[in-house]
Amino acid sequence: MNLPTADLLELYRRMLLIRRFEERCNALFLQGRIPSTLHLYIGQEAVATGVCAVLRRDDWVVGTHRPHGHALAKGVSARVIMAELMAKATGCCRGKGGSMHVGDVREGVFPAIAIVGAGLPIAAGAALSAKMRGSGQVAVAFHGEGAANEGDWHETLNMAAIWKLPVIFVCENNLYGASTHFTRAFAVAHVADRAPAYGMPGEVVDGNDVEAVREATLRAVERARRGEGPTLLECLTYRQCGHSRSDACDYRPDDEEASWKEHDPLTVAAGRLRAAPWAQGEADLAAVEAAVAAEIDDSIAFAEASPAPDPADLERDVFWEGE
């Protein structure tokens, strides 16, 4: 893993954008300026960033109920995400989806699926479409380790393997399904241990090392584009906040939290940048910090200046089955 300094700096910038965006969202929520709960991505930035770094714009991504990081990493603008969170008509889902349904099909991001595990069949469907059309596209299904105990997960992995679909299943194992520790819900050491049962490769990755995630995803994407089928990537990571805004995290040991924060994805990447040949060290990092702050300030100003949805659009973009 010897990425050029400029590439590593871009990965760091994208992770920092996600981190600072989420921190500002948390502050805005506490001020009553975001009218919904939040499931923040703080601590897991290297996963979405590393995965999306090797995707084409026309590749598909399906996120989870913790979707802001996935959307930002894939290229959805901070402006339209912030507007969506503030329930404005300029939001990526026109203010109708909110935090748990962020997405923008123009950037290859399906509006996120809030139901645990329900995004996997959507990603498999997109991959089946790509295979039938011969487009060379791949689909990525982000999910937590809790989703790996849902029926949708098992059925989708089995079907994807049988049909050799160009899909990558990215399990973000942050150790806790809400407040339940991984070891209380699984009899295997890793989610990826289940992959051979479905006839696909499984790989465990350091999910707080953006370069490691990028390299593992690159192998999986190249395999999918060659027509060799799906891969299960398990990225070991840790959310540095509660499951949602109502979660005080009192079930997690202090020493566990401290240990994971020492391996913070931003700290890991920043350390490499400081040591990289030809890097400007602190000057580069400071410039990125300033640019990210300006981008987020702009997104908030844009959202606050945007209009609320028109009540006349209530039934627009709604699919009615039946009559």
Largest sheet composition = 6 strands, parallel
Approximate strand percentage: 5-15%
At the fold tier of CATH, the topology name is Rossmann fold
Which spans have pLDDT < 50 for at least 5 consecutive residues? none
Q: With helices defined by DSSP (H or I, 4 residues minimum), what is the helix count? A: 11
Query: How many angstroms does the end-to-end distance come to?
Result: 56 Å
| Widest sheet, order of strands | 2-1-3-4-8-7
How would you sum up the global shape? globular
Radius of gyration: 19 Å
Q: Number of folding domains?
A: 1
* Structural category: alpha/beta
Query: What is the count of β-strands?
Result: 8
Kindly describe this structure.
Helices cover 43% and strands 10% of the residues. Strand 7 (202-206), helix 8 (210-225) and strand 8 (231-236) form a beta-alpha-beta unit. Helix 2 runs parallel beside helix 3 (68-74) and helix 4 crosses helix 11. By secondary structure, it is an alpha/beta fold. The chain has a single domain, classed as Rossmann fold.
Topology summary:
Layout: H1 5-30, H2 45-52, E1 60-62, H3 68-74, H4 78-85, E2 109-110, H5 119-133, E3 139-144, H6 151-162, E4 167-173, E5 176-177, E6 180-181, H7 195-198, E7 202-206, H8 210-225, E8 231-236, H9 254-262, H10 265-275, H11 282-305
Parallel strand pairs: 1-2, 1-3, 3-4, 4-8, 7-8
Antiparallel strand pairs: 5-6
Helix pairs in contact: 1-2, 1-3, 1-10, 1-11, 2-3, 2-8, 4-11, 5-6
